[in-house]
Design brief:
The structure is a homotetramer of 354-residue chains. Chain A is an alpha/beta fold. Chain A has ten helices and 15 strands. In chain A, α7 (152-163) crosses α8 and α8 crosses α10 (323-342).
C-alpha cells in the first residue's frame, strides 16, 4: 500500500516550475457545505483522482462539523482561515454568492487555485475587480463553475460550430426547466442562478460576447409561488447577430431539462434530448426525465473536477472558464435584470479586457 | 359498372334540405393550375371519394389546356366563368392571392362552396369584406386552406391542450423551415405565405386570438437571396398571455421542417419530429428529411379535401377553418409586416365578429 | 351535381380494351361483414375514390341487413349469389378463411376482380388450385390482402434493399405484438393469422422464397389463455440464406406493434418505430402505442383499396400481391405449424410456378 | 501538497481487519499492456481515485518499457514476478486468455485482489479450478472484467426486471456489432470474445443460469475475412425458459453497437439506443455511431475500476462479477462452440456451486 510519500524527481519542467509534484495529491478544502458543497466534498473524497479532501468550512458550525466527520477531514469554521491554511493547496468555493468576492480575492493573494461556483460574484463591478486582480498576477488561478462546458453534448455542439460544416450559427434555441424552486426564489434569481448558465453556454458555443438582452414574460404558471414570474423568455444577441432565445421555466413539476438547439446556415443540431432506457407498457412508450441537475449534469461535474485537479497537479493554468467568463456572465445577467424590470432591450458593454 | 345515375330517394333530411344528393359526385372546378392547383386537381381526380374534377381554369391559356387534357376535363379560360358555370358545383381557388377577393365574393353570390387556398385575401380589409358578406348569407360556404388543421400531429396537440391534462398553455415554440425559396421571394412574403400558417396554428391550438406580434431578425444566412431577411424570429402574444415564438427560415438548404412544441403548466409536447425508416451506415444513424411541404403535409391535404367534399355532399356547412380564420390570420400578418419594418411590437385589433 | 352518367368517349385504348369506363364507378360487394368486412365497407363507401359500395353479403342474415342499411346498399344473403350478381363489378372477400377457395374460384369463373383477405385459403393445396386456375385464365384477377405491402415503412425498406446501398441482406428481425387475442385463439392461429404477414413481408422485402422454418417457444406469458403457446419465436431461411426471426407475441397487454429490422452487409434499418406526438409530464417522456392493427395499418389499408380500385378501373391487372404470394405464404405457414408440433426445422418446397 | 503519508487511526473495523488503510492509495500493476492493458494503465494513472499505478508488465519487453516510461512507473518483465512483488497491492490482468489461469491462481496464493479481463480462462475446466481455489480461501479476491454490469443501461434494465413491474421476462433480443475484426479472427472467437458478454448479460439481467445454446449461421457477409462465419445467430435458454437471441456481427463496417431488448409479460424495454447530439443537414437527420467499445463502454470501464478500487481500499470483498460468473460464461461459450460445429442445440450443465 503506497503512501505516495516518496519525494520524486519531477522530470516535467513545467510542473517543476510551478512547484507542484505530480506524485502528490492536491489537498483541497471545500468552502460552503450546503447541498452543492457537500456534493463536491463527496466528489473530491471518492471520485477525483489526484485530489485529497482535507477540510470543509462553513459559517454554520454544526453543519461543518457533521460534514467533516462524515468524510474524516478537518472542520474549519472560518472560511477565510481555510483559504490561508498552509495544509490546504486548493479551494472549492460553494458559499453563497455574496461571499465570493472576498474569498476569491483572498485566494488570489495566497496564490492558491480556486474552483468557484457560479456566480463569480453578484455584480459586474465586483467580478471586474477580480478580473483585474488576477490579471495583475499574470496567471490564471480561478476557474468558474460553469460545468456545462464539461458536458459531452455541449462539447459536441461546440465542435460542430467550430468545424464550420453547417455554416455560421444563426440561432440558439434554449430551454432550461426545473421541477420546482426552493421557497422565496424570486424573478431575479431566475436570471442570476439559471439564465447565467445559458449566457455562458452562448459565449462558449459561439465564441462571441452577448451585446444585448431582453426579457419577455408570458402568463405565469399557476404552480409559481407568489411573486415569481415563471416562466420567462429571454432573448440575447451576440456580436455577429446570432439570436439566442431561452425559455426559463423553473416550476414545470415534471423534472429537470436543459436543451440547446443550434440553427446554422446549412444545418441544425440538438443536444439534451432524452437518453437511457426506453420502455413500453400499458402507459405507452417512453423513458424517464432527470429529476434534477445532479442527474443531468453529474458526469459534467465529475469531469470538471477531474480536469481542474489535473491542471492544478500539473502546475498549469486551469483550463476551464475563468474570471473573464464569470465577469461577462455577470454583466449580461445584470442587464437581464434591468430588462426584466423595464421590459426594454438592454445593451451590454463589457469594456476592454485587461 | 355503375353510373351512379339512378335517382335515389334521399332519406337524410339535412342533405335533402341543402339540395344535394349523396349518391351523386360533387363536380369541382380548380381555379389556378400552378404547382398547387395542379396538385389539387390530381387529388380531386384520383383520391377524393365523392368528387369529380370537371374543369380547370387559369388565365394562362396554354397551361389550362394542358392540365385539362391531362385530366380529361374542361378548360375554362376565364376563372370568373368557371365560378358561375352551371356544371360546376364547388370550387377550389388556387389562383394568386390578389384575385381571391373577387372570386370568393362571386362564389358567395352564386351560393357555391369554396375551398380557398390561403391567404383568404391579401389584406385584412378585403378579408373582412368577405366575412361580412358570408355573414349576410347566414351560412358557411368558404373554407380556407389551412391544411395543418387536418394533420394528425396538430390534432393530437390540440386534443392534449383541450384535455387540460397538462394545465394551461404557456408557450408554443414553432419552427418553419424550407430548403429554398423561389426567386424574388421577399421579406414580407415570409410573413404572408409562411408565418400565416403559424398564426392559424396558434389560433387553432389555443382557441385564442393573437393580440400582439413582433419580429426580430438575427443575422441573415449567406444562402438568402439579395434583399431577403432570412431567417426571422416572430413573437406573438395571445389573449391570455401565451407566448408564441416562430423561427421562420426558408433557405435552410437541408429540407422542409415544421415543428411545434407546447409548453404547458405541467407538461410539454412536441409534434413534427422525424418519422419513417431509421438507418445505420458508415454515415451514422438517422433518416431523411421531407424535401417539401407536399411530403410533410400530403396526408393533411388529402384529409382536408376528403372532409370538404364530404361536407359539401352532405349539404352541411363546411367544417374546416372559415373566413373569420382567414381574416384573423390576415390581420395578424399585416401587423407582423408592420413590425418587420419598424422593429416594434404591434398590437392587433380584430374588431367585433359579425 | 354530376351523375357521372354522360357516356364519354374513352380515349385510353388500354381501358377501352379491358371494357372498363374510367368515368364510371366500380360497383363493389363486400362478402363477410364481421369487424374486418365492415371496416372495408366503410372504406369503400366513404374513402376510396372511384368505388361505389353496392352490396354486402354474409351468411349472418341479421348482420347483413344491419350493415346494408347503415350504408344504404343491397343486402345479399348468399355470398355466392353476390359473386355472380350482374350489378356487382368487383368483390372484397372478408369471410372466414375456409370459404375463400369456393368464392375465389367462383369469381375467377365470373371473370371478376377480387380483393381477398388473407389467408388466400387455409391450405397450400387449395391455394395451389387457385394459382392454377388463374394461370389458365392468363390474367391476374385476384389480389391477396397483404396490406403491409402498401405501408410506407415497408416500401421504404424494400427500396433500400433494392438499391443495394447497404449490400446484401443478412437478417430480418421482426416483432409482431398484439394487446390481446380473442377467446379460443390457438397456437396454430398464431402462425396462420399473424406470422403469415411476416412470411409475406419476408418475400416482399427480399424477393426470395422461404425454404425452411422452425418454431421455438420460450416460457409462455401468464396472460396467455389456457392452451395457447404465447409468445413464440419463428426462424425462417430464404433461398440465399437470409435469416428471418420473428417474435410473435399476442397478449402483450400494452398495445399493437409491428417492427422490422433489416441487417445488411454494410448497414441496418428499422421500420415500425413509435411515431406521433411526444410528451413530457410527471410520468416521464414518451408517446402512445397503437391499440390495434387498424391504427397501425389504417393508411396501408386505404392505399391498398385505392390502388386496387384504380387498377380495376383502368382495366389493368391488379398490381398487389397475387395468388402465388397467397400460396407461398400458405405453404410456409403449413410448414410452420408442423415445426410447432415437432420442434424440428421443416423445409418448404413450393414446386414449379405455373 | 499532501503526501497522504500520515498514518491514520482506522476507525472502520472492517477495513482494519482486512489490513488496508483508507488513506493510502492502492498500488496496482497492470499485466499485459496491449491495447486493453494500456487503456487500463491510463485509467488507473489518471482517473481512478484511490489507485496508484506502480508497475506494468508484459512478456514483450520493449512494449513494457515504453509503457512504463510513458506513465513513469516500473517495468516488470515477468508477469509472475509482478504478481508477487511486495510493492504491488492489486493486479489488473489483461494478458492473453491462455495465461490467465496461472496468473490468477498465483494471485490467489498471494492473497492479492485481481481484476481479470474476460475470459477468466479459456476452458470451463480451468475456470472451475479457480472457482474451487477461491472457495477454499473463503474470500472473494477475483473480479472478472464483465464491464457491462457497470453500464447505466444494463443497470436500469436489471432494476426494471427486478422490480417485477413488467412481469416475468420472456425474451432478450440482443445485437452485438463491430465495425471490423482484427486479422485471423475466427468463428470460435466470435463466441469466446464477443458472445461471452451476452452470456454474462443474460445471467446478470435474469439472475438465471443458461441451460442450452444453439448457433445458427445465416449467409456470411462479403466483408468477412476468409474462414470467418460472420454474422451468427445464437439462441440461449435460461432455467425458467427465457429465450435469448443474439445477433453477433463483427464486420458491419458501420461502427460498434450493443443493444439489448427485453420483452416481458406486460412490457418491453430497450437499451443501447443512439445517444448524443442529433443533427440535420443535407444528408438527413441523425447522429454518429460509436466507433468502438471504448466509446460505447468507456464510462462503464471507469465505473468498474473505481468500484473495484473502492472495494479493495475498503478491504471488502470485490462486489463485481466473480469467478463463478467467469466459469459459467466459459461453460456456456464452450457449449456454443460445440453447437457452432454441429448445428445442434447443446445443453449446459454447470455442476454444483462450491
Amino acid at each position: 500500500m503506497s503512501t505516495s510519500s516518496t519525494p520524486t524527481t519531477t522530470l516535467d519542467p513545467d510542473s517543476a516550475r510551478q512547484g507542484y509534484d505530480r506524485d502528490r495529491l492536491v489537498r483541497v478544502a471545500v468552502l460552503g457545505v450546503g447541498m452543492m458543497g457537500q456534493d463536491h466534498a463527496r466528489r473530491l473524497a471518492t471520485l477525483t483522482a489526484g485530489a485529497e479532501l482535507v477540510a470543509v468550512s462553513d459559517v454554520d458550525v454544526a453543519r461543518t462539523d457533521a460534514v467533516a466527520q462524515e468524510f474524516g477531514v478537518r472542520a474549519i469554521h472560518d472560511p477565510r482561515a481555510a483559504v490561508t491554511d498552509p495544509e490546504v493547496d486548493a479551494l472549492v468555493i460553494a458559499t453563497p454568492g455574496f461571499t465570493h468576492e472576498d474569498l476569491v480575492l483572498l485566494a488570489l493573494d495566497a496564490g492558491k487555485p480556486v474552483l468557484c461556483e457560479k456566480p463569480l460574484t453578484t455584480s459586474p463591478e465586483t467580478s471586474r475587480r477580480i478580473v483585474e486582480r488576477e490579471a495583475e498576477l499574470g496567471r490564471q488561478l480561478v476557474q468558474v463553475g460553469f460545468m456545462r462546458r464539461f458536458d459531452a453534448g455541449y462539447q459536441q455542439l461546440r465542435a460542430l460550430i467550430a468545424s464550420g460544416d453547417h455554416g455560421a450559427p444563426l440561432f440558439l434555441h434554449c430551454a432550461h426547466r426545473n421541477a420546482t424552486t426552493p421557497p422565496n426564489f424570486n424573478s431575479e434569481q431566475l436570471m442570476l442562478d439559471s439564465v447565467v448558465h445559458e449566457v455562458d453556454v452562448t459565449r462558449y458555443l459561439t465564441g462571441e460576447e452577448v451585446v444585448a438582452i431582453r426579457v419577455i414574460a408570458p402568463r405565469s404558471t399557476a404552480q409559481a409561488p407568489e411573486g415569481l414570474r415563471d416562466p420567462q423568455f429571454v432573448i440575447m444577441e451576440t456580436e455577429s447577430g446570432i439570436l439566442v432565445d431561452v425559455e426559463i421555466f423553473v416550476n414545470t413539476t415534471f423534472g429537470y431539462e436543459v436543451r440547446t438547439e443550434l440553427v446554422a446556415e446549412r444545418g441544425q443540431a440538438r443536444i439534451g434530448l432524452p437518453e437511457g432506457m426506453v420502455t413500453q407498457s400499458a402507459q405507452g412508450w417512453g423513458g424517464s426525465i432527470p429529476k434534477d441537475f445532479k442527474e443531468r449534469f453529474g458526469a459534467a461535474y465529475d469531469t470538471e473536477f477531474q480536469r481542474w485537479i489535473d491542471a492544478v497537479r500539473n502546475g498549469t493554468n486551469v483550463d476551464g472558464p475563468g474570471v473573464w467568463d464569470g465577469y461577462a456572465a455577470a454583466a449580461v445577467c445584470a442587464a437581464g435584470v434591468r430588462s426584466l424590470r423595464t421590459g426594454e432591450r438592454v445593451e451590454v458593454d463589457l469594456g476592454p479586457r485587461p
